[in-house]
Design goal:
- Helices cover 23% and strands 28% of the residues.
- By secondary structure, it is of the alpha/beta class.
- The chain starts with a helix and ends with a strand.
């Protein structure tokens, strides 16, 4: 198990913006692949409740630093449970979840909330408050309006947005559909 200071230092490193060339100088070379490990890397399955409603998996999801990911699906399909898993507040039924290369099973949940912020009902005020805290990862659940989605997409950093409406996720770099417990990448948004 990893100490909390090591986990926090890993997340600080991952949350830092990548270095880019300034204006006025020679053109910047093509960007190299980001050397930082994924902010979130999980493989496994989970069950939202004892009856099996909202079960997800098996699945695999990797979220790179700075990436904006959208997940949509019907109510009760497991979007909230998946975000709780990514936030470290819910353990997977099978598999593992890593934040910044650190196994979340070895880190206390309260320590992760400094760097991974779950906004359970992502309205404007709740999102604005979360963004003022500058989390490494913002997990916005129940995104229901365009203004909230745009505020999350315009903010620096990494974000995962969950919504019942695919159209609100068009600005995301990758979009996933969660249906019948299966998480399937549908393609890219225009973000």
């Amino acid at each position: 198990k990893v100490g909390i200071n090591s986990a926090i230092n890993s997340l600080r490193f991952l949350a830092a913006p990548a270095i880019s060339a300034g204006r006025g100088g020679p053109p910047a070379p093509a960007p190299a692949p980001d050397p930082r490990p994924p902010l979130v890397d999980c493989d496994g399955s989970l069950r939202a409740d004892e009856a099996g409603a909202g079960a997800v998996g098996p699945f695999s999801l990797t979220v790179a630093p700075g990436e904006k990911i959208g997940i949509y699906g019907l109510a009760g399909g497991g979007k909230t449970a998946l975000l709780r898993l990514l936030s470290g507040t819910q353990a997977p039924e099978t598999g593992e979840v890593y934040c910044g290369g650190v196994d979340c099973a070895g880190v206390q949940t309260a320590s992760l909330t400094c760097w991974v912020r779950l906004v359970p009902r992502a309205g404007g005020d709740a999102v604005a408050e979360a963004l003022r805290e500058h989390p490494a990862i913002l997990l916005a659940d129940h995104v229901a309006d365009r203004a909230t989605a745009q505020a999350v997409l315009d903010a620096p950093g990494t974000a995962v947005l969950a919504s019942a409406r695919r159209d609100l996720l068009a600005g995301c770099g990758r979009i996933f559909r969660l249906e019948g417990g299966v998480l399937r990448e549908e393609g890219r948004g225009h973000g």
